[in-house]
Each structure stands twice: as C-alpha cells, then as structure tokens.
Write a structure and sequence with these properties.
The chain is an alpha/beta fold. Helix content is 42%, strand content 15%. The N terminus is likely disordered. This is SsuA/THI5-like domain-containing protein.
Length: 337
Amino acid sequence: MAPFHNILKLSLVAHLASTVSATLNIAAVLAWIEHVPLLVTTQDFYPASSQPPVLINGGVAELVSNDTIDLAANAETQAVRGFAKNDSLRIIWNVASVAYRLVVNTHALTADGTRNITTLADLRGKKIGTIVGASAGYFVEALLKTAGLNHDDYEIVVSGICHEAPCGNRTFPALFARGEIDAFGVWEPTVELGIQALPADQTKVFQDKKVYREIYNLHSTKEKLEKPEKRKEIVGFLKNLIQAQSVFEYSPEKVYERTSNAVNISVPLLEKVWRIHDWSGGLPADLLDVLEVEDEYIARLDGREPNTREKLKEMIDTSVMEEALEQLRAERANEWF
C-alpha cells in the first residue's frame, strides 16, 4: 500500500481541481458514512465553471439496471449480487474498508442458563440482530462460524439502524437495551450506540477484520469504461476522489463537520467510530478471495449457483485506478518545475 499512501499524502499539499467537465451520475446510499468522500469530491475538486457529478440515493442495483447511472458505491456483498444479474459490473477502487463489530450483552444467560455470555460460542440459541443478505448479515455468520456456530444455531432478528440517540423503539440499540436481542452486528454508528446503551461492564465487543471487513467499493460497467469520453470522466473523478480520501485518512478534522451534516451523526459520535474506517484506497490484494467466499453466501440466499473464481475475477478492473494514479504522478511532477 506504500505507493498509494505516498500519493495520497502528496495530495494534501495541493488541492487540485480536475479539468474534466463531468456529467457523471453516481449512486450511493446517502445515509452511510462511507459515501461522504464521494460527496466531498463533487464539492471540493471540481472548478466552479464545471458540472460536478450528481449523487443519487442507491447503489450497485441501480448501476446494473439503469443505463443513466455511471458509477455506484456499495459493499462487496452487493457487488456479487449485482454481478450475478449483470456481468458487465466492474470494481475500480476501494472507497473505504470497515472492520465491523458485534456487541454482546454479557449479562444474558447462556442457552442452558448456567452462566453469562462471555464467548462467541455462548451465543448458541440466542437472538442476534443483523440484516440478512447485506454485509452485516455475512459478517455475523462468518464471525460466529469461527466459534463453531452455523446459521441455524441462533435466531436472527432483523431491525433498524440508528444514527443518534435516543434511538427508535424498533432499532437494534433499543432492542439491545431492552434485552430483546442478546447481540447485534451491523455498520456504524449503530453498534457504537448499542455499546453506549448498556453499562460498560455489561457489554463485550467482538471484531476481527481477518474474518470480515466491509470493502466499500466504487463500481462502473464494462460498457461505460469502453466509451472514451465517459472513461475520461470516470478517470478524472477517481483522480479527484483519491485526493479527497487523503483528507479523510490524514486530516479527518477537516471533514468531520461536513460528514456530520451529510449523514446526521453528531461529531463526537463520528469521532468515536472514525478510525474503524480505513480510507487509504487502492484495490485490496485479497479482493478476489473475499468475492469468492461471499458469493457463496449471497448465492445461497438468492437461490442460485455461485460464480466460479475465474468468472468473479472479471469483476476487478485495475486499469482505471492505474490511469488515475498515473495522472496524479504526472501532475505532481509538473508542480516541482
């Protein structure tokens, strides 16, 4: 990752605007922290005279079904689902990686009623909150599998997320506080609010990024990338996004307030969960491994056969990243003369 970091650090020195006149439409869930670098890119890295990209609420599902969408950001679980429907889908960059957390009420009794919950294995027979078919659902299943628990060894409870206390009656933190679920795992800051919902000595957090981290990627399609003018716009956007992400990674205090306003999360809460997010970018070396194992999970839920590893490999396109990074290197070299 060192070459990416070197380029990202340099981008703090010069806040450059792209010369590309953008007409891009980008789909992302606008309520999630992970999407905000896209927003900052559109606001800060395009000249006032240009047309910046337009963000719409959505994700990969919109990209693969709507030709007016050029880019989409989503977790890798939704990428494999989208690829099964439209194999022109391509992953071109990692916007954020997030090591999800599972919070447990340690005062809940184990299945045999003999003691409190202290280990993942103790969750056998318990009620666990998550969102099936999403990144959170895969995370919970994968984490509990490390303790020898299969998905039929516990009861899944699906509920809602929360961005700020007091949380709604049917959100995960509220259910957790009332003892209606014994643990839950989903994206932030909902888990942090669950941790805060009970006394510190009554909760335990499990987290293992080797088992699961959300890989929140930027996607396009083969057809979009084969159109010269559209590709030029996409490469220009990615070049600007790389610069925006450097601020998130190295000077987050500059974007706390805007992130807070964009997703309705208070700055103090945002600061607590910020470093769970990795904004360093690139394309993870293990991305194909992750896609392969997660496609099995999604395929089981969707009632289809998993794609082969060779087929999934088609989804990863490094060429856009390479072009964007080369343009940044050339701009940096020109600044020194």
